[in-house]
Amino acid sequence: MALKKFLWVLSACFWLALKPAFAVLSPGPGAPLVGQVVAKFLEEDQYDHHPIDPAVSQNFLQNYLEAFDYNHMFFLQSDVNDFKKRYGDVLGEKVKEGDLSPAYEIFDVFLKRLQNRAEYAISLSSTSFNFKRNEKITLDRHKLPWPKNWKESDKLWRKRVKYEMLEEILNKTKPKDQGKEIRHRYRRLLKSYGEFDAIDVLQEYLSALTHAYDPHSDYMAQEQKENFDISMQLSLVGIGAVLKESDGYAQIVSLVPGGPADKDKRLKPKDKIEAVSEGVDGPWINVTGMRLDHVVEKIRGKKGTTVRLRVIPAGAIDRSSRVVISLIRAEIKLTDQEAKAEILTGQDIQGNPVKIGVIDLPSFYEDMKSGGENKSTTRDVKKLLIALEAKGIQGLILDLRRNGGGALSEAINLTGLFIPPGPVVQVRDSRGVIRSLEHSDSMIYSGPMVVLTSHASASASEIFAAALQDYGRALIVGNKKTFGKGTVQTLIDLSQYVPRIDPKTGPGALKLTIQKFYRVSGGSTQNKGVTPDIKLPSLEDYMDIAESALENALPYDEIDPASYQKVGDITPPLVDQLKKASEKRVKASREFGYVYQDIALFKKEDEGKVASLNEAERLKQQEDADNLDKERKEERLAAGPDEFTKTEITLESISGSTAPAVSEKALDKADSSDKKSGKEKNIAKKDKEPEVPDIELEESARIVNDMLHPSEIPQELSQIAEKTKAALSAIAKAENKHKVDELEEILP
């Protein structure tokens, strides 16, 4: 008996020695004053001027708990109930008093729960699971209760580890390494949170308070402020991706226009980075659970070097899907965000050539010195417009799909190129004062025009699109709605208000929402975004990629319209006519048919929130996804020539600093010269990866063509109507699962 007791004690001591030693943290000497200053700014200067009352405190507490446990997996419901009982109504008041102790107490409890659950997950990694059972796991538990006791928590974690083990199997990890990968993941998670210091906790705590007001107000500790300053200079060497932490993963928020990731086109918002590798063949480093700043450090690097990312795609139907993306690091400068143009040449109903100009505008920029002249969006677009008109374009598409905003002044000035002098946007500040911002420039383009938008079109791009829609000047085409960010933030350097007590660490900064945008018609762009006149189907319509999906987003509201007059010829009867023509084409389109398929599959899989734990079922899903992808590639390779030929026009080609632009058709012809033997040509064709067409841009071009020839639309509709049913049947046949009537439910 004594020997058993001795062995048990020895075993326990050995296990304790393996545990990471979490330091007990407490606020630094300057932290209480930083908290008080942040609280004062929130009450007095944030847009809503809302006092820190019990309702704000309760929201504050929920935000802080979910900053560490977003999916409600680590804390027990009893922990949460205890925190709510003691702090629910007074957490904000304690910050105002300079008492930050709850931040560190709650974080300490989280570390204990993390330690317990990580050890349990590691112990389960050696379990032989039965993958023949028809179990399912809820992947998104954000809105579900915390487990009420350890027994319920154990059930949740058993499923989680089983899911992770199945992911390794489906990802073809060697059997001996499957458990090893999971153990490494949770040890990394423990190490990551073990590296938190007092300032990290303070940043999470005060950001939880600012987010109780709105999602764009943030507290930045000094290190994060310095990183923010670097990002605003747009001179950082990296891949050009904005990241956030999400349930232990580094998740893509957005891509910097012109950066390596944006040009590569494979990374998308909501994608999660699972592992990072240096160089073309370096070892994979699993970054799940790693601190976000450490993940960023691994992705950044020397200009011209290669970094590989193993990514979990957000829109993947098969949850086990992993994509390896290799990128060359580059210095991301403002020049990468310059406006660019091209001409799409197609035909009208009678076979006559039609030239449609396209201006791709990734951001609204200004004040970059170039040749002694301040560079700006408006100047560049004006040059491109003149060049396009000189080439004889008959209509214009302004592409804002990647445009997340930028300089408000440029959005106003650019609008002035397309409408007469008048108001562009209204702004209301935190005092309730409303100003109408106008332009006074001369309109230089008055032809048919489409503004192409997406869920990523935000802020300044929404102001531009809304103004042209309100004036009846342009037709808006795109996803269900734009992002919906209609607020303005200012950055307050807290060193002006808080002394630098620690010589190495400043007090950081506060990003604060202070204004709200309104259309000239009176409605806000906040939360609601801009609804297009013609909607094109998109899988992103079914994902939470919008301001309205963010916690505590400011609401939509309206003010009185500004004094303005419609000047364009976009009328309701014309919009209805164009819309019907577009819908018929979209329903008959092979490529949009693929979009409908993806939507149907995504909805069938509960929009990615639930996954099966049955291996055979998951393998079948994986096989179906692979077959579907293969079938689409074969169909694209077998397709006829593109409907449009493209000619690129850049600012450099206009100035004469580069060779004249060459059409893609001419390039294709040169590539297929007699320099290659017939055998070589066949091999090249067989191995060629088919180009995925830009279906939204091409449909926008067809809409512009309709605008040029509205009297011919009815004839075109009758022609397309005959093709629609056959096209739907072909779509349904792809997996032999989805009936035509099921697909018709999601068609426009």
> Count of helical segments?
24
Shape: globular
Q: Estimate what percentage of residues fall within beta strands.
A: 15-25%
Q: What level of helicity do the residues show?
A: 40-55%
CATH superfamily of the largest domain: 2-enoyl-CoA Hydratase, Chain A, domain 1
List unreliable stretches of 5+ residues: 1-18, 231-235, 368-372, 658-687, 715-748
CATH topology of the largest domain: 2-enoyl-CoA Hydratase, Chain A, domain 1
Tell me what the CATH architecture of the largest domain is. Alpha-Beta Complex
Number of domains: 4
Task: Give the structure's gist in a few sentences.
The protein has 748 residues and is an alpha+beta fold. It is 43% helix and 17% strand. The chain is globular.
Describe the structure.
Helices cover 43% and strands 17% of the residues. The protein has 748 residues and is of the alpha+beta class. It has 4 domains: 22-213, no CATH class; 236-331, PDZ domain (Pdz3 Domain, Roll); 338-507 and 520-570, 2-enoyl-CoA Hydratase, Chain A, domain 1 (Alpha-Beta Complex), CATH 3.90.226.10; 588-642 and 693-744, no CATH class. The chain starts with a helix and ends with a helix.
Features:
globular, disordered N terminus, 4 domains, Pdz3 Domain, alpha+beta, 6-stranded antiparallel β-sheet, 24 helices, single chain, 24 strands, 2-enoyl-CoA Hydratase, Chain A, domain 1, disordered C terminus, 748 residues, 7-stranded mixed β-sheet
How do the helices and strands line up, and which of them pair or pack?
Layout: H1 2-18, H2 31-45, H3 54-68, H4 77-87, H5 91-96, H6 101-124, E1 136-138, H7 150-170, H8 175-194, H9 198-210, E2 218-220, H10 222-233, E3 237-238, E4 241-246, E5 249-255, H11 260-264, E6 272-278, E7 284-286, H12 292-299, E8 306-312, E9 323-328, E10 330-331, E11 340-347, E12 353-360, E13 366-370, E14 373-376, H13 377-390, E15 395-399, H14 408-415, E16 422-429, E17 434-439, E18 449-453, H15 460-470, E19 475-478, E20 487-493, E21 509-518, E22 534-535, H16 572-588, H17 590-604, E23 610-612, H18 615-638, E24 645-649, H19 651-655, H20 664-671, H21 678-687, H22 695-708, H23 713-733, H24 740-744
Parallel strand pairs: 12-15, 15-18, 18-19, 19-22
Antiparallel strand pairs: 1-23, 2-21, 3-10, 4-5, 5-6, 6-7, 6-8, 8-9, 11-12, 11-24, 13-14, 16-17, 16-21, 20-21
Helix pairs in contact: 2-9, 3-4, 3-9, 6-7, 6-8, 7-8, 14-15, 16-22, 16-23, 17-23
